[in-house]
């Protein structure tokens, strides 16, 4: 089992070794350029925000790929660029046209086609059905608790949104939000950390970084109760997904948990 074999493998490289600094710099410059064009009236703010979101998701995915592909291989330089461009293109396409959200599928499709080269990030092997069902059940349990808590909170209600409204959010979660979080925070960061330290220390690092990512997300409503709720549920989701990855060596159970949980989250609406 991965939990037994992985615990005794050590990694003498630095925790951040292999980070594609030049690619991350280029993504940062693209974000700055997008906002500069928006400020000058050349581009819309919507496009600038899309570039920012796509660059952020692309940066997480690029780091996950770069950290797990052996450096002597030429793919170690090419693959991070490919996944970063896929994530960026998906975000921009989603902002340009009503049906553009389907472009969010570019990133998972890119990863799926190259999964044989990305076994170290947890995409090559298939987990046991028990752990996969456990991931689905875990996401449903957290989602059910969220629905119950939200129904008791003044100003929130649960209602099925229109398909045209829900569809783009589900595509975003499937191809960007959950995918990038699991690939980087579990498949890359947690995996590297648990080779050096205990499960608890590695999970704490992965969880703290994951919670920080969501708290700075501009898409998160800026209210105290939402921020507190996000920190609580993302913490539980992250710890659970770290355990699922530790047990299986696969991202699939954690991806399933994240998809189910965020699908429930998208049903919450603020009552005017």
Runs in which pLDDT lies below 50 for 5 or more consecutive residues are none
What class would the helix/strand composition place it in? mainly alpha
Query: What value does the average pLDDT take?
Result: 87
Count of individual domains: 1
Strand content: under 5%
Give the terminus-to-terminus CA distance. Answer: 51 Å
Task: Report the count of strand segments.
Answer: 2
User: What is the CA-atom radius of gyration, in angstroms?
Assistant: 18 Å
Shape: globular
H/E topology pattern = HHHHHHEHHHHE
The number of helices is 10
Q: What strand line-up does the widest sheet have?
A: 1-2
> How many strands, which pairing sense, and closed or not: the largest β-sheet?
2 strands, antiparallel
Helix content: 55-70%
Give a verbal description of the structure.
The chain is mostly helical. The protein has one domain (2-270). It has ten helices and two strands, in the order H-H-H-H-H-H-E-H-H-H-H-E. It has helices at 2-6, 21-39, 45-68, 75-96, 106-113, 129-151, 163-194, 199-215, 224-248, 252-265; strands at 156-158, 268-270. The protein has a two-stranded antiparallel sheet with strand order 1-2. Helix 3 (45-68) packs antiparallel against helix 4 (75-96). The chain is globular and about 50 Å long. The N and C termini lie far apart (51 Å).
């Amino acid at each position: 089992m991965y939990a037994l074999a992985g615990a005794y493998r050590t990694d003498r490289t630095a925790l951040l070794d292999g980070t594609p600094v030049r690619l991350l710099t280029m993504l940062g410059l693209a974000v700055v350029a997008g906002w500069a064009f928006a400020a000058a009236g050349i581009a819309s703010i919507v496009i600038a925000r899309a570039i920012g979101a796509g660059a952020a998701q692309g940066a997480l995915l690029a780091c996950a790929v770069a950290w797990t592909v052996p450096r002597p291989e030429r793919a170690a330089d090419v693959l991070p660029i490919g996944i970063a461009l896929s994530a960026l293109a998906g975000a921009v396409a989603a902002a340009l046209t009503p049906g553009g959200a389907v472009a969010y599928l570019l990133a998972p499709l890119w990863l799926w086609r190259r999964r044989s080269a990305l076994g170290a990030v947890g995409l090559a092997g298939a987990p046991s059905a028990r752990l996969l069902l456990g991931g689905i059940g875990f996401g449903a349990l957290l989602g059910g608790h969220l629905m119950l808590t939200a129904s008791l909170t003044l100003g929130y209600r649960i209602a099925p949104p229109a398909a045209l409204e829900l569809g783009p959010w589900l595509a975003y979660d499937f191809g960007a939000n959950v995918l990038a979080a699991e690939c980087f925070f579990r498949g890359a960061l947690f995996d590297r950390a648990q080779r050096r330290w205990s499960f608890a220390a590695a999970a704490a690092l992965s969880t703290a970084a994951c919670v920080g990512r969501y708290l700075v997300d501009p898409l998160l409503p800026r209210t105290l109760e939402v921020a507190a709720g996000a920190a609580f549920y993302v913490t539980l989701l992250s710890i659970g997904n770290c355990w699922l990855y530790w047990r299986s060596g696969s991202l699939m159970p954690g991806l399933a948990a994240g998809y189910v949980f965020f699908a429930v989250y998208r049903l919450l609406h603020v009552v005017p």
